[in-house]
Amino acid sequence: MKLNAEHITDAIGWRFDNSYIGLPDYFYAPLQPVPVQCPQVVMSNHALATSLGLNIRALSQEDAALLFSGNILPDTAQPIAQAYAGHQFGHFTILGDGRAILLGEHLTQAGERFDIQLKGSGQTPFSRRGDGRAALAPMLREYIISEAMHALNIPTTRSLAVVTTGESVIRENILPGAILTRVAASHIRVGTFEYAASKGDAAAIKTLADYVIQRHYHDLIDTENPYLSLLSQVIHRQASLVAKWLLVGFIHGVMNTDNMSISGETIDYGPCAFMDAYDPNTVFSSIDHQGRYRYSNQPLMAQWNLARFAETLLPLIHPMQEKALALAEQAIHSFPEIYQTHWLVGMRMKLGLFTEETEDVVLIQNLLAWMQKNYADYTNTFRMLAAEAVPEGAVFNDAEFMAWHARWQERLSRQSESKLMSFRLMQANNPAIIPRNHRVEEALSAASEHGDYSLIHRLLAAVTNPFVDVPEHSDYRTAPAPSERVYQTFCGT
Ligand code: AMP
Ligand code: MG
After folding, report:
1. Contacts of 8 (CB under 8 A, 6+ apart)
2. pLDDT tens digits for 247-278?
3. 80, 99, 170, 192: residue to mutate for ligand 1 pocket, most atoms within 8 A of CB
4. Distance between CA 301 and CA 127 in Å, rounded?
5. Which of 281, 298, 292, 242 is nearest to 487 (CA)?
6. Are residues 163 and 311 in the same domain?
7. Spatial distance between the Cα atoms of 208 and 315, rounded to a whole number of angstroms
8. What is the pLDDT of residues 272-330, one digit of tens each?
9. Is residue 417 pLDDT above 80, yes or no?
10. Same-domain pairing of 179 and 299
11. Which residues have C-beta within 8 Å of that of residue 355, sequence separation ≥ 6?
12. Is residue 446 included in any domain, yes or no?
């Protein structure tokens, strides 16, 4: 009989091919996950597994629990904790995976490469004072929100499984522990570049940049200045990503440079949440006292982070410091316009517009201003516009809204596309269902406090099919009553 690790590797279909460990050894620490007492699978993502060419169903419950807890390692895994740094709320710190282990990189049949990481897997050389562990509710939050983001067509890391560990973690309360299996294009962050730059050795940053170009930006290899092109491409991907966040009302919550992925995926779901009533100043995170990462500040913070990224690339961009600085600054200063273009393209789709008129920006801003003044729900207002009927409900029975609506109707009639085409475009760009925070919290409490996962499964079914009006899911469309509103989310991770 085969050894269990080999059997599990074959059964699920792992095809590990680990390239990150080819980097110089100061980029990571090889080590094993710390085994847990009594692992049990509570979530497994069969759709994701299938898309990766994996078969979780081929494993027994026991073997799946051993695998996704890290108690048994696939025989082809080469587990490491990655080193990185980061600006946290503006302050530079050396960090690293303090509670995560990268098992390796799985190659799909199509040749796509994905990091497979266990989050909550025990202490590492980078744990500082942390216990290396994660509590169940935040790991389930990451699972729900990342899968919702994916369904909303927003680039994101994904969640393959959650296991409970049978151990407690001590935070403000004693909580059940858990481990999340995260799937990412890679876990290379702006902070990884800051870490390389902190070595004070130009070779380190070049090695990392070359690796990233090879892995994520292969088309840039033959450009005239691949490192400047890399900066420009990362700027484009982040501008597009953050525009998508704002278009659906998403607030990341902790946009530190260590939580900004070089591949352009949303990463590290901590105190993130979706906005209900439209208010550009919305902030949920309990640790964000200044509102640094509030909804409307996210583009500015992305640009700030990208400037930190640009600084690390300076020696590669041009041998003359002044020239390098000028080129990098020019790239960074292009961010607002690139962002604005993505946002406007997205907003036009949300309003069913196929053509471009200069006045569109004002039309959009007027709608948003009206929403803010009237505490209108962001998601529901757009979805209501995407219904063919004239919007109903007390909040729309308002002269200012009706005047806006008439202007919008006129605008629609100035394009040759039919109203039906506009509605189709709008239905595909205005979700009916987002993971509203009060429903997320409700589902997390049921699971974490009572072991009842039925709410999570129902919520997941709804948020992973967000653009279709499913009558059984209509309760998820209701905005929270004042008494249900969740004002703060906790890192409590
Ligand atoms: P995060 O806020 O999750 O992005 O984490 C920021 C940094 O703190 C990362 O380096 C994490 O690995 C580390 N960290 C967070 N929680 C823990 C923990 N419980 N034990 C050890 N390190 C942690
Ligand atoms: Mg992080």
Report:
1. 59, 63, 66, 67, 72, 74
2. 999 999 999 999 999 999 999 999 999 999 99
3. 99
4. 26
5. 281
6. no
7. 13
8. 999 999 999 999 999 999 999 999 999 999 999 999 999 999 999 999 999 999 999 99
9. yes
10. no
11. 414, 415
12. no
Residue 13 CA from chain centroid, whole number: 26
Token digits for 77?
């895994």
- Indicate the number of domains in the chain: 2
List, chain by chain if needed, residues with CB within 6 Å of any ligand 1 atom: 95-99, 127, 130-133, 254, 258-259, 268, 270, 493
8-state DSSP, 257? G
46 and 141 in a single domain? The answer is yes
- The whole-angstrom separation of Cα 122 and Cα 124 is 7
- In this structure, the answer to whether residues 81 and 35 fall within a common structural domain is yes
Identify the residue whose tokens are 């919007």: 391
| Residue range 371-385, pLDDT digits in tens | 999 999 999 999 999
Give 434 Cα–ligand 2 centroid separation in angstroms.
23
Distance 259 CA to ligand 2 centre (A): 5
Smallest CA-to-CA distance from 118 within 135, 99, 141, 95 is with: 99
Q: In terms of domains, do 393 and 252 share one?
A: yes
Q: Ligand 1 mean position to 11 CA, how many Å?
A: 32
The last residue of a domain, from among 163, 187, 211: 187
Domain boundary among 138, 162, 187: 187
* CA separation for the pair 342, 325 (Å, rounded): 26
**Does a structural domain hold residue 482?**
yes
When the pLDDT of each residue in the chain is averaged and rounded to a whole number, the result is: 96
- Which residue has a Cα nearest atom 23 of ligand 1? 98
CA distance linking residue 436 with residue 148, whole number of Å: 11
Residue type, position 199, single letter: K
Ligand 1, atom nearest to 97 Cα = 12
Give residue 117 CA to ligand 2 midpoint distance, Å. Answer: 13
CB 332 within 8 A of CB 233: no
Residue 126 lies in a domain: yes
User: What ligand has the least distance to the C-alpha of 189?
Assistant: 2
Q: Is residue 86 part of a domain?
A: yes
| Whole-number pLDDT of residue 491 | 61
Residues 6+ apart with CB under 8 A from 66: 4, 8, 39, 72
Atom of ligand 1 nearest to the CA of 268: 4
Torsion sign (Cα): 315, 197, 114, 48: negative
Considering the domain architecture, whether residues 248 and 146 belong to the same structural domain is answered as no
What are the pLDDT digits (tens) for 148-197?
A: 999 999 999 999 999 999 999 999 999 999 999 999 999 999 999 999 99
Can you tell me which atom of ligand 1 is nearest the CA of 84? 10
Contacts of residue 409, defined as CB under 8 A and 6 or more positions apart, other chains included, come to none
**Domain range for residue 55?**
2-187
Could you say which ligand is closest to the alpha carbon of residue 170?
Answer: 1
Quick one: 131 and 238 in the same domain? no
155 and 219: one domain?
Answer: no
